[in-house]
Design brief:
Length: 401
């Protein structure tokens, strides 16, 4: 490790490694990159504990286009991330997303979202209850008014595979990684000048990128700044079905989608099992080291909703569960990508609120463009910049789960 780098990235999971990859892949960037990661096992990172899905079914065109780029990147990942003979396979499952609405207001949201999605070229269809029943005959649809289904461009994939692919390629392209922790950020007026590590080392920095996930606010405060991001706990459950409905669909080669019930409970196939979760009834910020699952959510929320939706989900058995953290943006639940307007060499890549893996490629590319060119060159992410935080102007997204 040297004592000075053009870019120091705080956090080396999927977002930090995506930034490192796109910087070092760009022939117009000739600087040095250091990634500081406190836990090289990534065992408790939001990346490793994610359900790792991707969808285009958002209500805002920027989010749709972010995921469209993410999907393209995932398709080409093995070739793009090849290092020597290693071609990382993300094992993408093209199951699609299925949103269900059982109230007039929910149905109207699906219709409005669909107009945005189709305007962006997304392959999403709206279904009446009878269409839904034909496609997925295991579902009870008596209460459903409308469904929205992504026929292509949506599914789930290997979460840590995405991160390790970015990390390994970035290192092959010259990025340096160090196992350490940033404990202080030096600042001279309107510029950050470097970081101090827990090991005692000091490193000068031309730009500091905050990619520290749920700890983003801690990192920002070291520079005398702030960001409205806090850790929110999400418990995922893997369960077995006595009579699995996987394979019963009449479309998509029998594969079931990731289904979002009107209750907010979601589930999808996970190998021979299923994976499901819900938004907690109470959703406070938690301690950064609190990873105890909320076991009661399965019995109280997840199982009842699924059993009501399908007889196939009446007899279930949990085989595994874990808790991870959303890097939750308390202003509007959306990503924050951009420079601080007063400290311009401090760059945010935070607040993904559960969408970090699918939005990582676009966010990494966007941050690299800001650093290399001083502005966005491909997809304009100005709407999700830090300025809206200072102005208390939420970037509204109606399709948040």
């Amino acid at each position: 490790m040297k004592d000075s780098y053009d870019v120091v990235i705080v956090g080396g999971a999927v977002i930090g490694s995506a930034v490192a990859y796109f910087l070092t892949a760009n022939p117009d960037f000739d600087g040095s990159v250091l990634v500081v990661e406190r836990d090289p096992s990534y065992a408790r990172s939001s990346t490793a504990l994610s359900s790792s899905s991707i969808r285009v079914q958002f209500s805002n065109a920027v989010n749709v286009r972010i995921s469209q780029f993410g999907m393209q990147f995932i398709r080409d990942f093995a070739t793009t991330m090849q290092v020597g003979d290693d071609r990382p396979d993300l094992n993408f499952h093209p199951g699609g997303y299925l949103f269900l609405a059982n109230t007039p207001s929910q149905a109207q949201v699906l219709r409005e979202n669909h107009e945005v999605q189709r305007a962006c070229g997304a392959d999403v269809v709206l279904w009446a209850p009878e269409d839904l029943a034909r496609a997925f005959p295991h579902l009870r649809v008596d209460d459903i008014l409308l469904a929205s289904y992504g026929r292509t461009g949506e599914g789930w994939f290997n979460n840590t595979g995405l991160m390790w692919g970015f990390r390994n390629k970035a290192r092959a392209q010259g990025a340096e990684y160090v196992t350490d922790e940033v404990v202080a950020i030096a600042r001279d007026g309107a510029c950050v000048t470097g970081v101090t590590l827990k090991s005692g080392a000091t490193v000068a920095a031309g730009t500091v990128v905050n990619a520290s996930g749920p700890r983003a606010a801690l990192t920002a405060r070291m520079a005398g700044l702030d960001v409205p991001v806090e850790p929110r706990k999400r418990t995922s459950f893997v369960f077995d079905c006595a009579a699995s409905p996987e394979g019963t669909a009449t479309i998509n080669q029998g594969r079931l989608p990731l289904m979002i019930d009107p209750s907010g409970v979601f589930c999808r196939p996970e190998g021979r099992y299923f994976l499901g979760a819900c938004v907690p009834a109470r959703d406070p910020a938690v301690d950064w080291d609190d990873f105890e699952p909320r076991y009661e959510e399965f019995e109280n929320i997840v199982w009842p909703a699924l059993a009501e939706r399908s007889p196939a989900f009446e007899a279930l058995k949990v085989v595994n569960q874990w808790a991870g953290h959303y890097d939750f943006n308390t202003l509007d639940h959306n990503l924050i990508v951009g420079r601080h307007p007063e400290v311009e060499n401090f760059v945010y890549a935070n607040g993904f609120s559960g969408h970090g893996l699918q939005q990582g490629p676009a966010a990494g590319r966007g941050v690299s463009e800001l650093i290399t060119y001083g502005g966005f060159r491909t997809l304009d992410l100005t709407e999700v910049g830090y300025e809206r935080i200072l102005a208390n102007r939420p970037f509204l997204e109606k399709a948040v789960i």
